[in-house]
Amino acid sequence: MPRLRNWYVQDFRQEIKRGFTIDTKKLALRIAESAKSKKAKKVHVLDMRKVCGFCDYFVIASGTSLRHAGAIAQAIEDDLLIDKIKSLSRVSYNDESGWLVIDYGSVVAHVFYEPMREFYNLEELWSDAKRVRVSTK
Hints:
30% helix, two-stranded antiparallel sheet
């Protein structure tokens, strides 16, 4: 059973914090679906719970250009903001590094420009991590 994490939602007008729980596996799969909705290539979800201590899941996706990778990252953030789930990191969508990281605490999304993904090859680096099946819709 996936662990539950507390996510904090900020109401900027009143500056109060209230917590709610979210299933980290569902969050990872939702991020994967958001990436796929923007036509991301090779979307993979890795279960990192037995491999590392800093997160539960990696979501790895790639775009065919730097602009495409930025659009994928923006779609992920926009989709989760609907439910007031905010990233812990700031992402510059026009970043030219080819690797955008969106940190949601227990789930970390990596959006690559395809040549950068081949170079860094996170799936091979974390090959001990179990792959989670992502729907092929």
